[in-house]
Every structure is written in structure tokens, then in C-alpha cells.
Design a protein that fits this description.
The complex is a heterodimer. By secondary structure, chain A is mainly beta. Chain A is 0% helix and 51% strand. Chain A is globular and about 45 Å long. Classes of the chains: A mainly beta, B mainly beta.
């Protein structure tokens, strides 16, 4: 069975500093990995995905993520945080059913401090 | 573009009542799904559909029913509401299934349900 772990419930970072939101996964076979962001009282929005190829994936709003197969990790990063990046971030892995079902982590709340 | 539309946005029910959460998408997406979001638990899959007339259970299907009579609509029915079903519900859709690659899910804005 697949699983996703987001070890930090809360991450605080000063505006302008680099940010990292951690994610590790467990899945049989090749992983399909995703990051989504949720702003208050909104649905989830897609940030980026890893399917295959380059381990560094670039996405929306200046975010990127690094796929590390040996460490089974897919950490989300941004070189310079903005106050507007404050939100709830979810890592997800596609499950094994053959459909497009995603298995989500528990989420990490990012707060960027002005 | 409307995308994925969920109604109602808020609902309060009494234990034992039934209701239907509506979900409609205007993108001609094959795949549709329902998730529930609870604090500290992330999103959990309730039911999903890979096309009209086809539905299947997700991780937490008990107490919920779905149907997919058209490509556009995927309603979620609560048969007899319980306090444990108090949650925020999200509908999501995508263009295809695994044959089309790892397609991105488009989410609705959510429906907040409280069961007293």
C-alpha cells in the first residue's frame, strides 16, 4: 500500500528566506508525486508533479521540488518566501488502482513572517 | 470557465437525516472523485468514477453513496448522517485515467457539512 508522510505540521519562515516543506513516500513501483496548496476556505490547487525524468521539478509561483529516489523524498522548495505563500501544503502520491486517485499526506501549514 | 462546482457550500444536518452534495464539472473530464478533509488527517478518498456509469469505493466509503449517470455530474449522498461525517467535502476531476498519464486533479471549492 502507498503512504505519504509530511513530518512537520507547521513550518515558519521569514519573508525572503528559502523555504522547504518535507515529504517522504512509500509506494510499489515508480511513484507519481504531486504537491498541492490550499488557501483559506478554498479548494486545493495544483503546484507541480513528478512523473519521470529530471529530478528537479519546477512548478507554479516559483516553487520547485526535488525527487530523491534513494531517500524516497519529494521536498517542496522555494528560494525566497513571500507572505502570500502562507497556506496549507499537501504532498500526494497516485495510488495503485490504475485510476487517478491520489493518496494525500496530512498537510503542512506554512507561515511566512513579514 | 466554471471548472468544478460544488453545492451547497455549507449545510447543517441532524443525525439520521439524508442529503446530497452536488458536484458538476464543465471540462468533459472522465475521472471524478470525492474526498473528505479532516484536521490532522489530510484528504481521504470516499468514492471515485472513471466514466459515466462506473463508480468504485475509495478509502472511506461507508455511509456514502454515489452515482454517475452523466459525464458532468457526480453527486455524493449521505444515507443517514452521523456526527462522524462532519467534515469538509471536496469534489475533484481530471481529464483521464492512468492511460492518459498522471493527470492533474481540479478541485471544487468545498462543501462544509456539520452533523449535530
Amino acid at each position: 500500500a502507498q503512504s505519504v508522510a509530511q513530518p512537520e505540521d507547521q513550518v515558519n519562515v521569514a519573508e525572503g528566506n528559502p523555504l522547504t516543506v518535507k515529504c517522504t513516500y512509500s509506494v510499489s513501483g515508480n511513484p507519481y508525486l504531486f504537491w498541492y496548496v490550499q488557501y483559506p476556505n478554498r479548494g486545493l490547487q495544483f503546484l507541480l508533479k513528478y512523473i519521470t525524468g529530471d529530478n528537479l521539478v519546477k512548478g507554479s509561483y516559483g516553487f520547485e521540488a526535488e525527487f530523491n529516489k534513494s531517500q524516497t523524498s519529494f521536498h517542496l522548495k522555494k528560494p525566497s518566501a513571500l507572505v502570500s505563500d502562507s497556506a496549507l501544503y499537501f504532498c500526494a502520491v497516485r495510488d495503485q488502482t490504475g485510476a487517478n486517485n491520489l493518496f494525500f499526506g496530512t498537510g503542512t501549514r506554512l507561515t511566512v513572517i513579514p | 470557465n466554471a471548472g468544478v462546482t460544488q453545492t451547497p457550500k455549507f449545510q447543517v444536518l441532524k443525525t439520521g437525516q439524508s442529503m446530497t452534495l452536488q458536484c458538476a464539472q464543465d471540462m468533459n473530464h472522465e475521472y471524478m472523485s470525492w474526498y473528505r478533509q479532516d484536521p490532522g488527517m489530510g484528504l481521504r478518498l470516499i468514492h471515485y468514477s472513471v466514466g459515466a456509469g462506473i463508480t468504485d469505493q475509495g478509502e472511506v466509503p461507508n455511509g456514502y453513496n454515489v452515482s454517475r449517470s452523466t459525464t458532468e455530474d457526480f453527486p455524493l449522498r449521505l444515507l443517514s448522517a452521523a456526527p462522524s461525517q462532519t467534515s469538509v467535502y471536496f469534489c475533484a476531476s481530471s481529464a483521464g485515467t492512468v492511460r492518459s498519464g498522471a493527470n492533474v486533479l481540479t478541485f471544487g471549492a468545498g462543501s462544509r457539512l456539520t452533523v449535530l
